[in-house]
Design a protein that fits this description.
Shape: elongated
Number of strands: 0
Order of helices and strands: HHHHHHHH
Number of helices: 8
Helix content: over 70%
Structural class: mainly alpha
Strand content: under 5%
Distance between the termini: 8 Å
Radius of gyration: 19 Å
Largest sheet: none
Mean pLDDT: 82
Low-confidence stretches: none
Length: 176
């Protein structure tokens, strides 16, 4: 496993957790990852040429920047995708983008369909859901989650990018 792949695994896990909990991708984490990856790229044993990394970063930025400009996604998602391109090269972007977009699309369909499913669910299922919601542990957890998100809503696309990147690296496509 290359250093870039290991860094990508760690970044994918962090992006997943951060985006699911707070709907946020940390700029500090992305900058640290880029700095460490750039330092390793300067070593003679670098697996991916620096030009390929720079191209991957620019392609990742160029592909998702229009979606940010239209207000369809957050800037953190765009920066994460650009960082993924820098770490793994431009060739890794398409499969990661497709997997993340499919997962986010399924998530969006569930969010859209959930109100009608909840209304048509059997009474027993609704009572079970109410009992779980009434639990103080669940209520405290939900309040902590809302506090961490600070009003940010939406589909956690960065989490899906992180998961897709982890899957890509673990299936060997991230090896150089």
């Amino acid at each position: 496993m290359t250093i870039s792949s290991l860094i990508a695994l760690l970044l994918g896990i962090q992006a997943c957790v951060g985006d699911l909990l707070a709907r946020r991708i940390s700029n500090r984490v992305l900058l640290c990852v880029l700095a460490v990856a750039l330092a390793f790229q300067m070593l003679p044993s670098a697996q991916i040429p620096l030009a390929q990394c720079l191209l991957g970063g620019m392609v990742g930025l160029a592909v998702l920047l229009p979606f940010y400009a239209m207000g369809w996604m957050g800037a953190g998602d765009v920066k994460l995708f650009s960082t993924i391109g820098f770490l793994l090269g431009a060739n890794a972007l398409l499969p990661i983008w497709v997997a993340a977009s499919l997962a986010a699309g399924v998530h969006a369909l569930i969010v859209i369909a959930w109100p009608s499913v909840a209304r048509s669910s059997p009474l027993l299922l609704r009572k079970a859901a109410w009992a779980v919601q009434a639990s103080s542990v669940v209520t405290d957890w939900r309040m902590d989650l809302r506090s961490a998100r600070q009003g940010r809503k939406g589909i956690p696309y960065g989490a899906y990018l992180g998961l897709a990147m982890v899957g890509h690296v673990l299936h060997g496509a991230g090896y150089a």
